[in-house]
Amino acid sequence: MAWAPEARTAAPGPGGSDLEVLRALESGPRGLVEAEADERLARHGENTFPGRRPASWPRRFARSLRDPFTAVLVGLGLVSAVLAAWGTACVIAVLVTVSCVLRATGEHRADRSAAALRELLAATATVRRRATDASPPTAREVPVDQLVPGDLVLLAPGDLVPADLRLLRATGLTVHEAALTGESAPVRKSAETPPGPDGGGSGFDRPHLCFQGSSVVSGTASGVVVATGRDTVLSGALSAEHGLRGRGRRTATPFDRSVNGIAWTLIRFMLLTAPLVLIADALLHGRGLETMPFAVAVAVGLTPEMLPVIVTTALARGAALLARDGEVIVRRLPALHDLGAVDVLCVDKTGTLTEDRPVLAVSEDADGRPDPAVLHWAAVNALWTLHLAELPAPDALDEAVLDTAAADFGTDPGEEYEGVDALPCGPGRRLSTAVVRRPGDPRFALASTHTLVVKGAPEDVLDRCALDAAERERLAGRARALADGGLRVLAVARAERPARSRPYAPGDEHDLTFTGFVGLSDAPAPSAAEAVERLARRGVTVKVLTGDHPGTAARVCRELGLDPGEVVTADRIDTLDDTALARLATDTTVFARCAPEHKARIVRALREGGHTTGFLGDGVNDLAALRAADVGVCPRDGVDVAREAADVVLASKDLTALERAIVTGRRSSANIASYLRITLSSNFGNVIAMLVAGLVLPFLPMLPAQVLVQNLFFDAAQLALAFDKPGAGAGERPAVLRPRALLRFVTGFGLLNAAADLATFGVLALAVRSLGGHGGQEAFHAGWFTENLLTQGMVMLLLRSGRRAAEGRAAGPVLPAVTGLAVVGLLLPLSPVGAALSMTGLPPVYYGLLALVLALYGAGLAVARARADRQPAA
Ligand SMILES: Nc1ncnc2c1ncn2[C@@H]1O[C@H](COP(=O)(O)OP(=O)(O)OP(=O)(O)O)[C@@H](O)[C@H]1O
User: Fold this and answer.
1) What whole-number distance in Å separates Cα of residue 77 and Cα of residue 90?
2) Whose C-alpha lies nearest to ligand 1, atom 17?
3) Strands 138-143 and 124-130
4) Ligand 1 pocket, 348 CB below 6 A?
5) Which of 8, 649, 662, 778 could pair with 840 as two cysteines, CB 3.0-4.6 Å apart?
6) pLDDT tens track for 818-830
7) Is the domain of 73 the same as that of 181?
8) What number does the ligand 1 atom closest to the CA of 621 have?
9) Residue 25 lies in a domain
């Protein structure tokens, strides 16, 4: 269905003057009164983001039915029903229901805790409101869901646009609308209403409207809310099934590649099993479709149908453990698995490796002499960019400059000027310019002059200074020397220009006069050195991707015990194609002077080079890399868009917390791997044994209902694996599930299992001969049922990644589960349920023989496991 955004943006019409718009919304330039806002909230409802509404139970249930394993089970159930094999159909129905209920409740629980965690991360918006009619307006943070039409909202870089807004004022505002339009380049917005009844266009291209779901790339603005909640353009887009464009994340995540990859291989294998059984039986025994229920049961027996449940439970449990102490919040469950697989972690420098509390250390002129005037001009720049660009808060560098200047000069330097214009720093822009004039100064009055005060990265500022090549090189050398000493270096320059009313643009930053350098020291974060070392021990290589000077970055790395090697700067990256960059990225530890696109390219190159790559960053300039990484990590106080793009949110930018999260991810993955190894080895062995027995015996080795009932008990017991305590080794290496290694493991152990099963046949065949007739078959079935559940219990104990007896710890929930399984295996065939399933007990002597088979099997398993442990893990 064609859908036009202009149809949604409710009153007032997008055209009209600011006052008309505000009046139509019964608001004003001083903002709403709190009581009025409350009343509007009751009338319009909460401003919830459309994607956030929780799924209903029927939907959740339907979603779990869509899972491929469940779909296959349902298909097999239908085949059984068509063939009137009601017993098989009923047991499959029970299996499907149990797995759907477990899955839906697991997901419900996971969603509920994710929602609780989101509360912790609840996005806020800055609004201008008044306590009463008479009070002055104040800017304050309110939760985004409390916004109402008529609210005045202030926007700054990194903000998510919280509702649909009509801009009232904008300075250098560009927004990213990819989520709505798929357009990846930022779009310029302005407060001026273009002429025309519809506000100068239709759809998203009207420059004075900003839509919920877009994000601020640069600049600042204020605007009035024209639509919230279900009335926003984004809601309209979703309800018209227009979908969100450009939201699609990375292609295949490590989770998709490993767990889902294995699942699909198994499904194909399973779908082959049933026809194979049918063909073999038809050829050898001349049986026809009557073997179908047995073939179906064998295929079901092979299915690791609990995989989705185990995966959700193991990951949700890991995420809950991390959230318990409020340190780490996992926003997308599979990201916990991916975190465990990370072998390269890219981090920015500032605030991750350093404290981001810079302190002014140097203020010197062009000749390297201490000169307070340089600090003075740096402070003028900081003060007026802050005021004129209406930045919500100064960045840490500006704050340090302002604080030191205020302390040294006694007053706030810069207040003696009037601000004219400002061009702040932004993603990819490493300098800022404030244009000021001195009021009342006869020299500057009418003939007036504007002073451009520029400060920023030395390379960028020196490029814009009127200097000869030798002098520029000399000054760049001095900046390098300061940076090599570990300082963050800013160059300061000025220019006098005739006054003008036209706004200033980056093109005006030329022919500047060099003023001097300021250098700031930023101490390494206290826990960073230890965290880097611990990550290295756990097989995670840390790489630094920074916007800062190569010298500063190298020095910080050395202080943390991280060998920086040869630092690569962004201009070199620009000369490389993707293949060459992938090679270089693997061998490089520090990339400096990176703009956002460089950070993203490096991350992509590392992924293409076969690394599972995490990225930790908190700013607008980290956004592209957060999206490009396998796992994006952001601290809680990062900008809205970075938090929204991240898969994992940290309470603070603390690498040690991330290291703990990685270990938790590996433990969850270890439990998933345990399940796969155990269930597949056991199922594979059983299927081989059943096929052989089916071909040799004149009767079915197990009735379909018996196969399915024992499957049900095995499944239930295996749930314990999701709660297992993995062994100490589980957190040591990146946890990657390699399908080939898994297949090798499963084949080996499956054959061992089949051997035990066949030995059991031998024993049972003796029993059948001694008992004879129908009773013999029933005893055979009972014997095999018992042996199967007991071997499955043994496999669970001996093949799990969990702590084993040798590690001297309690086995967690697995031991009770295995005990339960053994009790069912021994007692069920002797009970009335056993009789209903056509089973009778064996003479005691055969139990003795079975015990012998089991003991031999257990010994074989233990030896094979010890050998497998010496090889690379599956
Ligand atoms: N307030 C500022 N005024 C002038 N120049 C600045 C300011 N903030 C940053 N810069 C310049 O831009 C460069 C890049 O800054 P950016 O924020 O991209 O990275 P960073 O903070 O240095 O490092 P990281 O990427 O590790 O967080 C800085 O090294 C500095 O030279």
Assistant:
1) 8
2) 547
3) antiparallel
4) yes
5) 778
6) 999 999 999 999 9
7) yes
8) 18
9) yes
**Atom 14, ligand 1: which residue's CA is nearest?**
547
* Ligand 1 lined by 432 (C-beta under 6 Å): yes
Q: Which residue is it, tokens 């239908």?
A: 78
Give dist(CA 680, CA 509) in Å, integer. 67
β-pair partners for 176: 215
How high is the mean pLDDT of the chain?
A: 83
Q: Do 532 and 575 belong to one domain?
A: yes
How far, rounded to the nearest angstrom, does the alpha carbon of residue 558 sit from its chain's CA centroid? Answer: 30
Q: Which residue would you say has higher pLDDT here, 509 or 256?
A: 509
Asked if residue 874 is part of any domain, the answer here is: no
| Long-range contacts (CB closer than 8 Å, 24 or more residues apart) made by 276-283 | 276/691, 277/691, 277/694, 280/691, 280/694, 280/695, 281/694, 281/695
The pLDDT of residue 78: 86
Is the same domain home to 454 and 564? no
Question: At 506, is the secondary structure helix, strand, or coil?
Answer: helix
Torsion region of 576: left, alpha or beta (phi above 0 gives left; psi -120 to 50 gives alpha): beta
How many whole angstroms separate alpha carbon 203 and alpha carbon 112?
36
pLDDT band at residue 5 under the 50/70/90 scheme: very low
Instruction: Give the distance between the most distant pair of CA atoms in the chain.
Output: 122
Contacts of 459 (CB under 8 A, 6+ apart): 476, 479, 593
Report CA(548)–ligand 1 centroid distance (Å).
6
Q: With a 6 A CB cut-off, is 548 part of the ligand 1 pocket?
A: yes
Q: Is 178 in the pocket of ligand 1 (CB under 6 A)?
A: no
Label residue 567 exposed, middle or buried (CB < 10 Å: 0-12, 13-18, 19+).
Answer: buried
- Both tokens of 427, joined, read 């993603």
